[in-house]
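Aggregate trends can hide what the representation actually does to any particular protein. This step matters because it turns folding into a mapping between discrete strings. For completeness, the protein is quoted in full, as a sequence line and a line of structure tokens:
=====
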Amino acid sequence: MTLAEVLRGVRHVLLDFDGPVCALYGGSSDTEVATKLRNLLSGGPLNIPAPIAHTSDPLEVLRYAAVRSYRELSLIEAEFVAQEVHASTTATPTQRAREAITALASSGRTITIVSNNSSDAVIAYLSRIGLAHIVDGVVGRVPRHPELMKPRPDLLQAAIEQRSANAKECVMIGDSASDIAAARAAGTLAIAFVNRPAKTKQLKQEQPDVMIESMGEIELVSQLPIA
């Protein structure tokens, strides 16, 4: 399928946040956030599995906290949200993302941000750059339930329900394999945004409907009318 064919019948766009919209840690460090979260785990570094001890992904630390205890999960979730909101103040916009979002909205399509990041961070960023009034909704991770994050379809299903839509009228745009896997599980179309060449093989394995290398492609094609 071509991008034009994918978007032709789509009335609702489900858009990942960190990647297609901005680089959340573009002005800060996800490694530092992961370290701060790790330091909140009880028992010290010897009580943490090696993959968690060395990960630069705060989401992995959050997932690990969930299997430890509800107390630690709650503690780390609260700190994580605070760190994400802080990161949103220096997040760097993805090239042509604003134009793509504006073009999609102008075409009559709805836009819902669907993210494993917190809704607080997404809303803070959208408000900061003046896009909050264009985006129709935000579905972030469910507090203290990291098991519901993508690649599970739960967040996408919540977004589809929020728009009172049918999955076949929706497309997910994301830059990770988990985005495409979630789209497949939810029954929506899927556009893989290859913002780094190293992701090409992994994204292709998830069999998206189409792959793009720039959000500018969305900007151009979304100007076509909805079929």
About this structure: The chain has a mean pLDDT of 96.
